[in-house]
Specification:
The chain is about 40% helix and about 10% strand. By secondary structure, the chain is α+β, with helices and mostly antiparallel strands. It has two domains: about 1-75, no CATH class; about 95-174, no CATH class.
Length: about 170
């Protein structure tokens, strides 16, 4: 959490055109690698720094709350899909990839494959064999089609925050 807060603080300082040298010194200070004594003007700088840190922490908390709400929405939508037949009946009927090691079978709802991210409409449901050999719901994936692999579209916005990871799958052009 502290590392992420420091990264966010660095980004904010860069937006205010704070020199990279000063940002590095602030980073060292925050990580506990150096200590300094402050003059009266230094206390103002430190006060501003704490203001930046506090706003980073508040943003972090707001984003976490938003993301949890989005995940709760998703959990409610996919709860019935613990039963593969229910997912197939609802449109996840295209077994798209075959079995993928460490992942499972990807079932696509073709009607959802578009250029948008919609929390409540994941394009794929994923099932993997459990110890008894039965397919068990394990995940969802979001995807957008890529018509031109040499010029792929930008990834859509995604969940709140900056932790989404979008990858290009050249085999399936998504």
């Amino acid at each position: 959490m502290k590392k992420k807060m420091i990264i966010q603080m660095k980004r904010k300082l860069q937006r205010f055109h704070i020199s990279s040298d000063l940002i590095s010194k602030i980073h060292l200070l925050l990580s506990g690698n150096i200590s300094i004594s402050l003059s009266s003007s230094g206390s103002l700088t430190l006060l501003l720094l704490y203001g930046f840190l506090a706003s980073c922490q508040e943003e972090d908390q707001d984003v976490n709350v938003q993301r949890e709400q989005e995940l709760d929405q998703l959990r409610a939508v996919v709860a019935p899909y613990h039963d593969l037949q229910k997912a197939v009946t609802d449109g996840y009927d295209n077994e798209f990839t075959g079995y993928r090691m460490q992942m499972g079978f990807h079932y696509l709802d073709d009607t959802l494959l578009d250029n948008k991210f919609e929390v409540e409409h994941p394009e794929f449901t994923i099932y993997a064999p459990n110890a008894q050999g039965n397919l068990q719901f394990v995940a969802v994936e979001y995807a957008i089609p890529i018509d031109d692999m040499d010029n792929p579209p930008l990834a859509p916005e995604g969940f709140s925050g900056d932790t989404d990871v979008w990858e290009i799958n050249t085999e399936f052009k998504v």
